């Protein structure tokens, strides 16, 4: 698996981010299986609000971001949940990407919430990935009550930590999956024919 490259894209800009810590754990688990890993921290990127009239090359670090995303065999998206969805920095980053970066690429999802499970944030990220014809890993990681999950920078709940690390393992295991083209129809959903 040494030729597998797993990229985690962190949608949190907070310095003390549970999302970033969780993604680091995810990447560590991927590295344990022999993958090359990379954390893309959006704090290090100048990404203006997406404007369809502006070329990506003229939009700060958008081209640099897209280039790094294209090199990934598997991508893990991580975001805090804000107002029932994922963060605006992650949305901006995804808006600068497209089919070239995501089509037929394995994608894992991780979301963090200060309260209840961030189910809607995961659903919204999944919808975007499906629209880009990505192959989304069925296993996903949800971190709730984020203010109390870390002790000395480590996850206190071993079950939660296992779920986060499993996401990294699945990213490696499914990085080279060959998606069935018939299952990716971003422009329409014909439903279950003959049922």
From TrEMBL:
Short name of one Pfam family: FMN_red
InterPro entries: Flavoprotein-like_sf (IPR029039), FMN_Rdtase-like_dom (IPR005025), NAD(P)H-dep_reductase (IPR050712)
Molecular function, one GO term: FMN binding
Cofactor: [4Fe-4S] cluster
One cellular component (GO) term of this entry: cytosol
Transmembrane segments: none
Boundaries of every NADPH-dependent FMN reductase-like domain copy: 5-146
Secretion signal span: none
Family: Belongs to the SsuE family. Isf subfamily.
Protein name: NADPH-dependent oxidoreductase
Source species: Natrarchaeobius halalkaliphilus
